[in-house]
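During the second year of the project, the team shifted from modelling isolated chains to modelling whole assemblies. The rationale, set out in the original proposal, was that interfaces cannot be judged from single-chain predictions alone. As a representative example for this report, we include one of the complexes processed in the last quarter. Its constituent sequences, exactly as entered into the pipeline, are reproduced here:
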Amino acid sequence: MTNKEFREMGHLFVDWMADYLENVAEYPVKAQVKPREIFNQFEDNMPTNGEDMNVIFKDFQEKILKGVTHWQSPNFYAYFPANSSYASVLAEMLTATLGAQGMLWETAPAATELEEKVMEWLKNAMNLPKNWHGVIQDTASSATLCALLSAREKYTNFAINNTGFEGFTDFRVYASSQTHSSIEKGVKIAGFGKENLVYIPVKENFSIDENALINAIEKDLKAGKKPLCVVATVGTTSSTAIDNIRKIGEICQKYGIWYHVDAAYAGSVAILPEFSFMFDGLELADSYVFNPHKWLMVNFDCSAYFVKDKGTLIRTFEILPEYLKTATDSLASGADAVVVNNYRDWGIPLGRRFRALKLWFVLRNYGLNGLQTKIRNDINLAKWLENEISQNTDFELLAPVNLNLVCFRYLGNNNLDKKLSEEALNEINAKILQNLNKEGKIYLTHTKLNGKYTLRMVLGQTNLTHAHVTQAWELIKTESRK
Amino acid sequence: MTNKEFREMGHLFVDWMADYLENVAEYPVKAQVKPREIFNQFEDNMPTNGEDMNVIFKDFQEKILKGVTHWQSPNFYAYFPANSSYASVLAEMLTATLGAQGMLWETAPAATELEEKVMEWLKNAMNLPKNWHGVIQDTASSATLCALLSAREKYTNFAINNTGFEGFTDFRVYASSQTHSSIEKGVKIAGFGKENLVYIPVKENFSIDENALINAIEKDLKAGKKPLCVVATVGTTSSTAIDNIRKIGEICQKYGIWYHVDAAYAGSVAILPEFSFMFDGLELADSYVFNPHKWLMVNFDCSAYFVKDKGTLIRTFEILPEYLKTATDSLASGADAVVVNNYRDWGIPLGRRFRALKLWFVLRNYGLNGLQTKIRNDINLAKWLENEISQNTDFELLAPVNLNLVCFRYLGNNNLDKKLSEEALNEINAKILQNLNKEGKIYLTHTKLNGKYTLRMVLGQTNLTHAHVTQAWELIKTESRK
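Output from the structure prediction step:
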């Protein structure tokens, strides 16, 4: 492709992109394809000769797009959103064009220092502890793994990094029964064994029972085990339950346990002063993660990971072979030290994309006010829906609406049906979900709360308006009555 | 930002992107900024009110760009390239726009199935074993970690995942002294301890000494240790040395050791039949990684990871909480089984970008012929430079030029200088590198080979031509004589 062709195709793409984002609500939000339908369209081998970009682009529209579930549709109420925005897409265009590699300060000074700057911006806007240091990870799963590994190495004074687990088994990690599956994944990778992840029961509001946590720690200590890390959650995946950050932090302090706080989804509300109570006690945490790529209009992937002690993080991951040594390494020590971050030592991958750029674009384009307005709107939409459901005797709320996730189920027509068994309700609600998603008008997912099949509806997509929510609610009522 | 503004800005961006890529050779290839220069330009806090995209874009050009090291410049000879291409940038524009999340088949059927398809394309074009399964990882570091974890879990029948290291210490991992630093990083994360990474000495051509490997394994077995994994390299970072894949594979077979092959950089030459000898014996490997984001014109990040036994990979990482269960999960078993990949279980992160799209765009736009031509050209440029250096008595080649990396040093003016000490040569060559990079005309990096400070020059950047290499060589000669 020549530069001229690239320019022409680029303009064609931009018009398609603007059209797509303008009309994204018109697509069936959940892809209407069968397994293997996309795969089977293409030859077994790549083409021998190069193909014109027009042909490839046409194939994209005709053969790929139908297999896309439209995460940027306002009809997307499933999982948690992976919000994008115009500003973020524009930034990604530049990131792709520069193709810079941010493993070291020297290989990408702008990417490195802008990352440090925007993480400071987030820290300040969210009133996170001043002494924290931020770094962008791909996902909260990776960030949590970093936390578990840092806890492991700090506890053992880096002995496992050096000589392995000999003499260091019996670590215990604690999290609520509502914790995200990435904690188990991290516990396995770090070598603790999932049987050493202790699930602590929750209270009625699905937040961790602190007394049960204390009891579990005490029991383990008596059995000679080593309490290593507690993971608290601000906004669980099933129901956005909020653990008591201060109380758990005080427990961790008392027992000398690494304290990791997972606010992957809900962390974005920290920009709202009226929700600061949810983060009270956060200064007790050793590590913290939230995902701007979920509710803060920054394209996936962009996970914000903060630590109190960056030295431990760096020592957990650092490597310095000859071919990665640079002149600026030596600037990091001595009296005239200039701190240069080499982010390769702040996580698992060596290579790193210039992800700070999209964060910078979004934070500037929205401004703090713009982001606050957006998130407040979403929370108000959830309040509206919560109110609708609570006034409708055919439906039942299954968890407190702490933020913008509404957990509910259909109970049957209250006027006609006899009271249905729990089993029947589970079946009916699973069926409702299946039918709703099949039509492609809206996309919801489910969870189980106290054994009850629960419909989850997250009101946070970038392009969501009150009209969309009203329509969705009508559709849910209609579909349920069928 | 409105849709109309996005469209306008998008067109503005595309023109800038085309201009940038057309003129990328004119920028100082290595950023000419001092530490903190980028950071200090910006306020301590994000703006309160949203800013116009024109202002942000202007700041990008005036305040960010000067801190960018231009990885897409043909004057970039440092590290290994992180090649991009027009086709890949276009694909990234669509990926950012769709903002799809490929954790499960259901959340992104097109991303999931296109990934499977393009990995098959690579497998076939590169004559990789038919029974392998491919998945895209972010980096080779992460892929190698996956290999080490899979080896760990297979050996222990998933006991470490379940109960931890109790009873399973003393694992040993083997790699050459020239192996990449990511192996050590992975060994530490997986909990083996870096003292259990055994560095095997290399032969004169910097490839692993197979007899030394056998001796190390035998010695460990006698000492009651457990040989777990051998990592062989096709194309080491320092000098693109090629380990003997078949011989090492046979050793692994004999001792029942997991065999991981790291071809992160050099793996791309597998599309050239004349280089198939480098990959002879690859069917003996359990896992294999190479990076299309290095030498195959696909934007970072895109690392291709292949395994023989996908069941072990999946069992190493799998998680299935209620909120991630989907209707298609059940399709994966029973008589009418339809295989649906849920790539969340094929690596560390849960969330995944739609990276298959750029690979698909590049493979189709270049075609196999186009990619072969590009890579052959680079290798011929390296041969030309090798020849120039070998005929110049002021310079010395320090490693075989197996592909497109030339390792050399300046020896001093052969007619005038007395023979310089090794120490003096190391100092002189470090100084030459520093001065070359300082000017911003070309960017090289270094390594040490047999204690000798070595200039590394990789001839593989997407936009590289013979004219660039000629110019660079003249510059190196001139700078060295100073």
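Chain B touches chain A through 160 residues (CB under 8 Å). The mean pLDDT of chain B is 95.
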